[in-house]
Fold this sequence. Notes:
Distance between the termini: 20 Å
Strand content: 15-25%
Structural class: alpha/beta
Strand order of the largest sheet: 2-1-3-4-5-6-7-8
Order of helices and strands: EEHHEHEHEHEHEHE
Largest sheet: 8 strands, mixed
Amino acid sequence: xxxxxxxxxxxxxxxxxxxxxxxxxxxxxxxxxxxxxxxxxxxxxxxxxxxxxxxxxxxxxxxxxxxxxxxxxxxxxxxxxxxxxxxxxxxxxxxxxxxxxxxxxxxxxxxxxxxxxxxxxxxxxxxxxxxxxxxxxxxxxxxxxxxxxxxxxxxxxxxxxxxxxxxxxxxxxxxxxxxxxxxxxxxxxxxxxxxxxx
Length: 198
């Protein structure tokens, strides 16, 4: 059950050797398990037998969609080939409220070609002006940008071209307050939603 007072949940997907979509941030399980395996070189059956440090197993996308229900989610595409598989999965979850985000613009283009009604967000870690050009080229809904490179020019251009903006990863309430003062129309992405409870 989701108990935090949040607007959107963001999580990452990767593709296993046998084309299963799993929810995991890193390429390997190094940070979450005592054994490090490369997701792309491992079948889902092999991966699912691996116990994580929290006692659970790496979930597949379907399991997470079941848990979140109709809560709004951002799915961050980490690997090539995820987009078409994800669209296939989502057909079985018509009530899911999904947007896709990625540093890989080509994957967002696949999403857009298969279902132009699904919002897509271009991510950028270090080039705050290039992101506007890329987002406009693929007719993206918005952009997600690193908290240290958001700037007045990028913010102005995003507003000019009607691009939504979220800033990642903001884990300080003070920094979030400061960014919202400078850029009132941004959304903030955090690893610790409990720190932002009113």
